Amino acid sequence: MKERIIGHVKRVNGPILIVKDISDAMMMEMVRIGEQQLVGEVVKLYDGLATVQVYEDATGICPGDNVYGSGMSLSVELAPGLIGTIYDGIQRPLEELGAASGAFISRGLTFDAVNHTKRWAFHATVEEGSAVHAGMVIGTVQETSRIEHRIIISPHISSGVLASIAKDGEYTIEDVIAQVVLPDGRQEPVTMLQKWPIRISRPVDQRLALKQPLVTGLRVIDTLFPLAKGGTVAIPGGFGTGKTMTQHSIAQWCDADIIVYIGCGERGNEMTDVLREFPLLVDPRTGQSLMERTILIANTSNMPVSAREASIYTGITMAEYYRDQGYHVAIMADSTSRWAEALRELSGRMEEMPAEEGFPAYLPTRIAQFYERAGYMRTQSGYDGSVSIIGAVSPPGGDFSEPVTQHTKRFVRCFWGLDRQLASSRHYPAISWLDSYSEYLTDVKMWWNDHSEGSWYASRTQIMDLLQKEVRLQQIVKLVGPDALPDTQNFILEVCSLFKTAFLQQNAFDEVDRYCSVEKQVKMLSVILAYYQKGNEAIAKGVPMVKIRRLKAVQEMARMRLSVSNDDLGAIDKIQMRLERAIDQIGGIYEN
User: Fold this and answer.
1) Residue 477 CB: number of other CB atoms within 10 A?
2) Is 515 a domain residue?
3) The domain containing residue 523 runs over which residues?
4) What is the DSSP letter of 360?
5) Residue 13 three-state SS
6) Per-residue pLDDT reduced to its tens digit, 373-422
């Protein structure tokens, strides 16, 4: 790379360099600066000058230092070995960086993102002479105990004929495993390694309708505000409201095949907890470490700010690669506010005109470009795969009217607003049922009704109506007290209070309650609504509400989230039978 000098440093402004004497450079080209070979990217070209964004600490760079071109955009390496690895924002493996330089990362260090010498057991799935096309699967590698890595033809090869393919055996990712004869007669070698620019989405055949929910095991999400596979959701909340812990829980329990967790500008101690806890978490589906289906990207607040801006593109490009193999991938971006702050700082250093609150005018465009890369796709390989984006937003002071939250709401179809009052009262997940919404309800309605015998949508509508009525009744109670309300209205307050504690609250440390199956969620909601219906009938017959509330079956219902496992759902049916029988008996006494 040193042979191709494209210019010399003219001015240094933090991580932004002005480069003069530009002779041969292109937009978004990856460059190296100075003798330390610091990584950078060309972000602007004008009048023989270039603006370069440096992805490492720029201390020590001087005017006159050489800038070396690479001839390619900032790209990531895509090959077997990605899963279970911890990267920084530009896909440098942190464990190798730490081993080479200790606790503080030295500048100019370069390591391969994946191991180029490790040998993988390759199994061919096509024969010599077969017609091939972009995205076609030609072989497989067992990457982890759960993930079969499908070796696909690069999107750069549109079509051709397979001249040769390697026999089953062990190969490195750089070994040529196939030769493709292109339509013009040239031969193109194929390896297990691909490189792809992070700011360009990978091609697909077709964008499909979103019909399946991403099951998270969290009742407030799955039942009330579901997210579809391939969908997008924002989790805004102030400090301490539980954004990170909600994402951790989703990462462990959701039914995605692969998790990409991006720690973007978060505090170092939070990211340290992630790096320590994730390898210890057990995947509930396999009993193995959760890292066997997880990729971690750690770019903390004390790391170079420009690498933070690149980190979410690095993560979503790797997610798209596994989507192209037919997997369902969930991305946890924590948090996009820190990414937007990086955009603001870099924009300010480039002396661009600021928009609201100092953010660049193109902030909405960048947010849209990120979230639009989600979707449920028919890939070029012929498989169906998806990328779901779960983006945390950290509005200053919990103010949801600030620009990042407002622009994010424009481009996502699901919103899980975290409430500080709920978090302060130890109600977790602290997702507000009043501020949150999901536009995927009609999309996933058919799937849910198939798994709940048609009762989910009607039950959800009924309980949301009760929660809305409760808000209006609480305002009356504050003015005149609960004694002024008739029992029928007080019973609505009672049922909603029970619903919040027995259904919406969930204990992540309880063996039974930390994950709730879809079937259990439906049955729990059915019991609570049966309690409301039967209780209303009894009150109409003159039964005092206090008599209903003291029934033993009501106490059993309040504890069912902790006492009934996902494998013993018949116990909930028995609770409902005892509850209905007990209320009918009291109603019969007062009726007579």
Assistant:
1) 17
2) yes
3) 456-591
4) B
5) strand
6) 999 999 999 999 999 999 999 998 888 999 999 999 999 999 999 999 99
